[in-house]
Each structure stands twice: as structure tokens, then as C-alpha cells.
């Protein structure tokens, strides 16, 4: 397995820095990566090809995807979601330009922009539809349900 340079959601598919196998609930998982750090959360593959998140500290696991291919597609989908932003890029102004803008704002010539929450809601809806098409059980429960909850809450 190749080392992934992309770490969407902290998921790194890398077999060079993690143990080869772990046993969880009597089942062997081939370790294919980790989440954020190789010591806190491992990504493993069971004998049926399903992908699991495993926490060595807690000794527990949670289902991620039905296959490595589905996991990669989920990560790609999240990468695209995070690459698209609802906000305009930051602007750089001189002190004089900002003073002029502030004065115009105080005179009522510049109105604050309204939030674009609806755009984000539409993007979240599209993301969820895409994930369901890829691997519906994974999109509805397990490891991804927490991630999607954080997206819904605006944390991610």
C-alpha cells in the first residue's frame, strides 16, 4: 500500500508506521493506516474486506466502509467538500484603505454581507447523497455518522 500524502479528516493510509495486524473481539484486522496519529486510532481491514476504525486505548472498533475503494471515495468526496468554500478569499488592504472602508461603513454606504448558510446546507445535502451512493451503510452509521454530525453542526 502506498503512503497517502492526502490526509482528509486525518485519515492516512500507510502501512509503514503501524503494526501489521491487530486482534479485536477475536477477529484479526490487517492495519492499513491510521487517523491523525498511529498510536491513537488505527484503520484496519477485516477478512471480508470491510474497513474499521480501531482504538487501541479503548480496545474498541467502529465500522468505516465496506471496502478500501469505498473509503478512498469517501475521503475524496470530503476533500472536494472541504476544498469548496462558501466564503470569499481573504482580502489584503493597506491601513489607509481600511480607514476609508470603515468610514464608508459608518456612513452606511457599506452593508455587512448576509451569511450564505443555504449554500453550505446544499453542499452538505449533496455530500450526503454522494456518500450514500458510494456506501449507504457507512454513510448512515459507524465512524462516518460522527463525522457527518460534525459537518452538520459546522464543526467541520
UniProtKB/TrEMBL annotation:
Pfam families, A to Z: SUKH-4
Stored InterPro entries: SUKH-4
Listed name of the protein: SUKH-4 immunity protein of toxin-antitoxin system
Amino acid at each position: 500500500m502506498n503512503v497517502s500524502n492526502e490526509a482528509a479528516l486525518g485519515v492516512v493510509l500507510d502501512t509503514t508506521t503501524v503494526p501489521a495486524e491487530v486482534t479485536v473481539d477475536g477477529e484479526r484486522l490487517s492495519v492499513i493506516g491510521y487517523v491523525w496519529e498511529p498510536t491513537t486510532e488505527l484503520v484496519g481491514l477485516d477478512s471480508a474486506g470491510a474497513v474499521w476504525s480501531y482504538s487501541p486505548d479503548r480496545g474498541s472498533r467502529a465500522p468505516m466502509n465496506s471496502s478500501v475503494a469505498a473509503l478512498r471515495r469517501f475521503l475524496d468526496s470530503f476533500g472536494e467538500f472541504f476544498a469548496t468554500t462558501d466564503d470569499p478569499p481573504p482580502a489584503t488592504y493597506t491601513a489607509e484603505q481600511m480607514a476609508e472602508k470603515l468610514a464608508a461603513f459608518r456612513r452606511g454606504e457599506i452593508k455587512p454581507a448576509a451569511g450564505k448558510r443555504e449554500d453550505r446546507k446544499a453542499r452538505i445535502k449533496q455530500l450526503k447523497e454522494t456518500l450514500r451512493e458510494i456506501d449507504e451503510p457507512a454513510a448512515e452509521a459507524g465512524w462516518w455518522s460522527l463525522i457527518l454530525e460534525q459537518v452538520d453542526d459546522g464543526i467541520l
